[in-house]
Structures are given as structure tokens and as C-alpha cells.
């Protein structure tokens, strides 16, 4: 699990040119407008915590501005460095291949701009707190024995799916509720998770999406199990901004010189 320590928070930092690095938040992008709206809300939440720093939002696909456009704009503003924080919960293809490739091209285009990619956001204890809060808010009072299907996108990489299982275990520990995992794009499906929960004695089923924003995949989960209680996505949760700044600070500490 990614470290959430932030020993560098509030420190003055300087890239090669002496100016504090910009923060570029990179969201996945979606045809669903709710996703882009959520990403913009997160950007505003993040920017409000450190108004002295430049915070920009970019998308990997389907929405504008693109990563290339935002990097070009940051360079044109005179920045000599930027930290790129992927607004992603898992370290799958987009974080490991797609975004690094885009940044490699951008570095060749802007050789005087230092670009460094930070770690993804999750799983982070504070985001699991957000998920648990969403569950507690959505679970009906006196609903009987409740089972939670923690739902993620699904990945061809076993490690990514194992991290979802770790999230579900932590949700069970914190809430005292039965949990199983399911995926929107692979197995086990939400129906399979429901069968497992019922076999464990659950009477009321709740789908808790491990997603930053509502979109086509959370809608798919609702369509597959319309009679279940569906918890809202994490959204622009206040602690999300702290996680973003931790990723920024850790990347700064790893790559750039700290100044007094």
C-alpha cells in the first residue's frame, strides 16, 4: 500500500529554475459528463488548499484539455517543473504505460521543463475512510444483516484485483459488515458477489463502488443489480485533496532539492 506520510508538507521546494513546481492532476476521462464534472470539483478542492501553487487539470482521453495541452500551457507560463498526479485508484495500464509515454514525449518537446509522475491515489487509508463514510450514510437503519459488495473496474492484472480485495478486507474491519469484491468489467460480477454474501448470511445487499466518480461503469453496476442499495462514488471528498498533496510532496522530495 502506498505510503501516506507527508513529511514535506508545507516545505519550500525548487526545481531547476527555482520556482515551485506546478501540480498537474490527470483524470482518466469519460463520455459521461459526470466524470469530468467530478474531476473539476476535485481540482478546485485541491487548489483551495494551496492557493499559492499552480494546479491544472488534464485528461488522458475523451475530455479536454489533454495532457499535452496542459503541459504546453504550464511550460508557456514559465514553469520549469511540474508534478503529475494521476487521479487513479489503481496502478494499471494508464498509470504504468499510457501516462509515462505521454510525459516522455512532452519532455522531448519541452527539454527545460522537469516533469515527474507521482504515485496513484489509492488504495489510501483516507480514501477507504471515504468509502466507509459513504456506506454508513447509505445503509438503512435496522436493515438487518448487511452484506457489502465492494465494486471496482476490474483488471487483467491479478495484483490490481488483489488490491481491491485488500480494500474490501479493510472495509469489513472498519464497519463490522460482511464484504465481497466484484468488478464492473470482469468476474466476479456483482451478482456473484451477492450470492456469496447471501451464503454468508447477508439479508440486505449494498454495492459500494471503489470509483472516484459516477459514470458508465457505476451505471452498469446499478443496471445489473437495481434492487440493491448503491452507494455514491467517492466524489470530491475533502480528504482526497490531502491525498493528492501527499503524492505531490513525496514526488517533490524524491526528485527536487528542498530549500529553506
As a percent range, the share of helical residues equals 40-55%
Query: What is the CATH class designation of the largest domain?
Result: Alpha Beta
**CATH architecture designation of the largest domain:** 3-Layer(aba) Sandwich
Overall morphology: elongated
Mean pLDDT: 89
The major pleated sheet works out as:
4 strands, parallel
Strand content: 15-25%
User: H/E element string?
Assistant: EEHEHEHEHEHEHEHEHE
* Spatial extent as radius of gyration: 19 Å
- Regions with pLDDT < 50 over 5+ consecutive residues? 1-17
Q: Based on helices, strands and strand pairing, what is the structural class?
A: alpha/beta
Would you write up a description of this structure?
The chain is an alpha/beta fold and about 260 residues long. Helices cover about 45% and strands about 20% of the residues. The strands form three sheets. A four-stranded parallel sheet has the order 3-2-4-5, sandwiched between helices. Strands 7-6-8-9 form a four-stranded parallel sheet, sandwiched between helices. α3 links the parallel β4 (about 80-85) and β5. It starts with 11 loop residues before the first strand and ends with a strand. The model is unreliable at about 1-15 (pLDDT under 50).
Task: Describe this structure in a few short sentences.
Helix content is 43%, strand content 18%. It has 260 residues and is of the alpha/beta class.
Amino acid at each position: 500500500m502506498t505510503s501516506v506520510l507527508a513529511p514535506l508538507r508545507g516545505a519550500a521546494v525548487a526545481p531547476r529554475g527555482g520556482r515551485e513546481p506546478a501540480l498537474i492532476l490527470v483524470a482518466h476521462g469519460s463520455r459521461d459528463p459526470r466524470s469530468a464534472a467530478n474531476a473539476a470539483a476535485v481540482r478546485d478542492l485541491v487548489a483551495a488548499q494551496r492557493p499559492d501553487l499552480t494546479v491544472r487539470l488534464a485528461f488522458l482521453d475523451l475530455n479536454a484539455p489533454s495532457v499535452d495541452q496542459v503541459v504546453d500551457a504550464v511550460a508557456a507560463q514559465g514553469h520549469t517543473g511540474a508534478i503529475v498526479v494521476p487521479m487513479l485508484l489503481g496502478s494499471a495500464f494508464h498509470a504504468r504505460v499510457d501516462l509515462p509515454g505521454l510525459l516522455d514525449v512532452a519532455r522531448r518537446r519541452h527539454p527545460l521543463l522537469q516533469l515527474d509522475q507521482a504515485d496513484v491515489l489509492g488504495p489510501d487509508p483516507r480514501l477507504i475512510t471515504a468509502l466507509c463514510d459513504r456506506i454508513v450514510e447509505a445503509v438503512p437503519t435496522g436493515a438487518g444483516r448487511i452484506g457489502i459488495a465492494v465494486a471496482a473496474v476490474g483488471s487483467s492484472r491479478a495484483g490490481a484485483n488483489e488490491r481491491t480485495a485488500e480494500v474490501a478486507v479493510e472495509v469489513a474491519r472498519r464497519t463490522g459488515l460482511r464484504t465481497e469484491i466484484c468488478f464492473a468489467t470482469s468476474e466476479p460480477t456483482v451478482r456473484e458477489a451477492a450470492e456469496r454474501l447471501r451464503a454468508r448470511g447477508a439479508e440486505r445487499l449494498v454495492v459500494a463502488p471503489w470509483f472516484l466518480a459516477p459514470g458508465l461503469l457505476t451505471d452498469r453496476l446499478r443496471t445489473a443489480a437495481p434492487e440493491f442499495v448503491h452507494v455514491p462514488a467517492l466524489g470530491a471528498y475533502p480528504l482526497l485533496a490531502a491525498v493528492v498533496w501527499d503524492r505531490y510532496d513525496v514526488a517533490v522530495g524524491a526528485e527536487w532539492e528542498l530549500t529553506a
